[in-house]
Amino acid sequence: MKITRIACHRVELPLVEGSYKWSGGKAVSVFDSTVVVVDTDAGVQGVGEVCPLGPFYLPAYAAGVRAGIRELGPHLIGEDPTQLLKLNRRMDAALQGHPYVKSGIDMACWDILGQVAGLPVCVLLGGRYGDDVVLYRAISQADPDAMAANVAGYRAEGYTRFQLKVGGDPDTDIARIRQVAAVLKPGDRLVADANTGWTQHEAQRVVRAVRDLDVYIEQPCRTYEECLAVRRNTDHPFVLDENIDSLDMLLRAVSDRAMDVVNLKISKLGGLTKTKQARDLCAHLGIGMTLEDSWGGDVVTAAISHLAHSTPPEFRFTSTDFNSYVTVSHADGAPKRQNGRMAASTAPGLGVRPKWDVLGEPLLVVGN
Ligand code: MG
């Protein structure tokens, strides 16, 4: 089987809440997502999606997905989409770095492999564990009262895990964590994600001030070294995210015992193939995982569901149903949250069917 065509569709994904705010005053109101459609000479078609969290979260930006595929795509025409490791080596040989550019192509090729095999992607990724996976809700940065009210509202919808966007003024962040913790019930889990927003001394103040609370601390500072220093001075369970962008960084962090949970985002690592490598390593080493992506709509949510559903439950910390955060649906068959949980499709491949009327004409076509 050979890849004959790669097309990129640009889809705007407005937020249900109007905007999403996190550390340092960063905010997005409409996400710019790229749906990647890969065609083959066998008539099998796969779909992937890449949606950076704006241009200021990771070294990734929306138009860069398209620019990168314009550069990389011609090298992949004629390649076999079902030989995923070989295809990834080809992508890495043709374009150094830029993992997020490769993520949508890799995702679409897993969709193709699943359709050819007649199996859902989660089975091909290792197997389906349990009936569904537990989700967290990201709580956009706001006043402490508003964040506590927001958590109570999402709790009523069935969520039991909450990731607070902190990383602002440390005193306000301490109030945010305290006020939210006060509305939680036994069994709920709380994560304070600073998204690199604190300096090291600010992070030290916050972790000390909330020492009595059951809260995970995620990516407090910008550099790995600062985070490691904070980690060594706190007994809160610790999550690393932005700094863990490759297998090399994962191995270094494991060696330093720098985290208890790692956040694996599909596009941060370069697709499902490389995220599976990181996931399997973490499961072997006993590291918990948040399995998700930077952002996305129905296709990314489907890919997350397969990745999470194929992860041993004891290492599955949380995942995200991004398609419930946005007002536009661009594919049928994607998971729909029920009581704070979601399940991967049992159909072959990712189990999603693009809504062509929503996708419109492609912005970019490579091949024919
Ligand atoms: Mg994070």
Task: Please characterize this protein's 3D structure.
- The protein folds into 2 domains: 131 residues, Enolase-like, N-terminal domain (Enolase-like, domain 1, 2-Layer Sandwich), CATH 3.30.390.10; 229 residues, Enolase-like C-terminal domain (TIM Barrel).
- The radius of gyration is 20 Å and the shape is globular.
- The longest helix is centred in the first third of the chain and has 19 residues.
- Helix 5 runs parallel beside helix 6.
- Helix content is 36%, strand content 21%.
- The mean pLDDT is 97.
- Strands 7-8-9-10-11-12-13-14 form an 8-stranded parallel beta sheet. The chain has a 4-stranded antiparallel beta sheet with strand order 5-4-1-18. A two-stranded antiparallel ribbon has the order 2-3.
- The chain is an alpha/beta fold and 368 residues long.
- The protein is built from 13 helices and 18 strands.
- Magnesium ion (MG) binds next to loops.
- The site of magnesium ion has 6 residues, from loops.
Index terms:
368 residues, TIM Barrel, alpha/beta, four-stranded antiparallel β-sheet, eight-stranded parallel β-sheet, 21% strand, Enolase-like, domain 1, binds magnesium ion
The CATH class of the largest domain is Alpha Beta
Strand order of the largest sheet: 7-8-9-10-11-12-13-14
Supply the CATH superfamily name of the largest domain.
Enolase-like C-terminal domain
Query: Which fold name fills CATH's third level, the topology of the largest domain?
Result: TIM Barrel
Rg is 20 Å
Helix content: 25-40%
CATH architecture of the largest domain: Alpha-Beta Barrel
Terminal-residue CA separation = 15 Å
Continuous helix count: 13
Whole-number count of domains: 2
Present as ligands are:
magnesium ion
The helix-and-strand class reads: alpha/beta
The count of strands amounts to 18
